[in-house]
Design a protein that fits this description.
about 425 residues; alpha+beta; 5-stranded antiparallel β-sheet; 15 helices
């Protein structure tokens, strides 16, 4: 194995802890050596080396032609860099040396003063490092996890798993990109840039992050992302390891949706309603409330069965959502056939209109029971307008006052909207 090192610029002689010696050459012969040269080349005494070595090239048997060429260039002052000679056999072991020479005058003739440093350990470390680097690159390329290395989001290495995860055509397609930010959703790019800046500044997160990518093939996938700084070919780079978790994310979202929504109508359940309330309460937000109940629902179940009753409940939920969600309101199933609605910052007159529209739209819908027998039904609605909600007590008061309005709508003949005039819940509590 031949290793080329320019030690005159990258590894100054004085930085080596290994043996360093000097020899004098003239007319291609070894004229004199010091004790360190004797040790480097495996001899016992200076005299033994000089007796056994005539021409200098015998010291580097595997590099004789190169050594002769460099000797002639040095004598003509055409050589200004040192040279590494590797795998020189000395007493059954291979050594590596670095040679640096300059011209002197000896007995009236030009000669070379050569400094020789034993760099065997340095070369071996370099070999081990190269082998480790090859093994690491092989590990990256064969990993079952998607791995990409980039500088300022420009890809400089990517493995096949990453290519397949992202729906790309080939490794070459990815490496030809100017930036991988194009596959990061636009609203997340600023966060991705800040994350990389923090990592390069030494603030590597000790946890993974779930990120969404818009893949090359147009699909949207979720990945667990682990990124850190590595030294790649002498410079810092960001290594990104991806583990696809799309199925896990979608399952978690589905489970969360089920936990917060009514199975039949897919509107909020009671627990989700109370969770949603925390934000308006913290912001002291004005709130309008509706309670909506299907009139004579028990008779529908008795006459047509619970399956038809469920159809009526679903239709009411859809009708309410149509009129409420565009206003930023939320809909929840409060009981069996009863729904609750909250509309932040709604005006009194507007809330009344919404309730009347829900009442009218629902009463116009035709349902079909046993033997395709058609029927219609109606709802009663209680409304409380513009309550300033600033605590759990005021929320409960708001719901109680709305329930009172619903009771009046039922008592007044059903299929109508009953409204509490504008009030501030603090005044009601007083």
């Amino acid at each position: 194995m031949s290793i080329q090192l320019d030690l005159t610029t990258t590894m100054p002689c004085q930085n080596f802890d290994s043996a360093q010696g000097h020899m004098t050459l003239q007319d291609h012969r070894v004229v004199d050596v010091d004790d360190n040269i004797v040790k480097i080349f495996g001899y016992t005494t200076r005299e033994e080396l000089l007796d056994n070595i005539d021409f200098v090239y015998a010291l580097v048997p595997n590099h004789q032609s190169l050594a002769k060429k460099r000797y002639l260039e040095a004598i003509k002052c055409k050589l200004n860099k040192g040279k590494v000679y590797t795998d020189i056999s000395v007493n059954g072991r291979n050594i590596s040396i670095f040679c640096l020479s300059h011209i002197i005058e000896l007995n009236g003739k030009p000669a070379l003063q050569v400094t020789i440093i034993d760099i065997t350990s340095v070369v071996e470390d370099q070999r081990k490092s190269n082998e480790t680097d090859r093994m690491y690159r092989k590990l990256l390329s064969t990993s079952k996890q998607g791995i990409l290395i980039h500088r300022s989001f420009r890809p400089i290495m990517v493995n096949q798993t990453w290519v397949e995860q992202q729906g790309a055509d080939s490794i070459e397609q990815v490496l030809a990109m100017d930036s991988i930010l194009s596959i990061v959703p636009e609203d997340q790019r600023s966060a991705a840039i800040r994350r990389c800046e923090n990592i390069l500044n030494g603030n590597t997160p000790n946890f993974s992050s779930v990120v969404a990518n818009q893949c090359f093939d147009g699909t949207h996938k979720y990945f667990n992302l682990y990124d850190n700084v590595i030294n790649w070919e002498g410079e810092d780079a960001i290594q990104v390891i991806l583990e696809e978790v799309t199925d896990k994310v979608l399952l978690e979202r589905e489970l969360l949706h089920r936990a917060m929504h009514d199975d039949l109508t897919h509107v909020f359940n009671r627990r989700a309603i109370y969770d949603w309330f925390k934000k308006p309460v913290n912001q002291h937000m004005e709130m309008s409330c509706m309670l909506i109940d299907i009139d004579d629902f028990k008779s529908i179940n008795d006459r047509f069965g619970h399956a038809v009753g469920d159809t009526v409940i679903i239709q009411l939920a859809d009708t309410i959502k149509t009129h409420v969600e565009l206003l930023g309101g939320i809909v929840g199933r409060w009981g069996g056939e009863e729904f609750i609605v909250f509309i932040p910052k709604a005006k009194s007159a507007h809330t009344k209109i919404i309730g009347e529209r829900i009442c009218h739209t629902f009463s116009q819908h035709t349902f079909f029971g046993i033997n395709r027998r058609a029927f219609t039904t109606s709802v009663s609605i209680g409304v409380t307008n513009q309550c300033v909600c600033d605590s759990d007590n005021t929320i409960n008061t708001l719901i109680r006052m709305t329930d009172d309005a619903l009771y009046r709508a039922k008592a007044g003949g059903k299929n109508q909207v009953s409204i509490n005039d504008d009030l501030v819940c603090d005044e009601v509590l007083a």
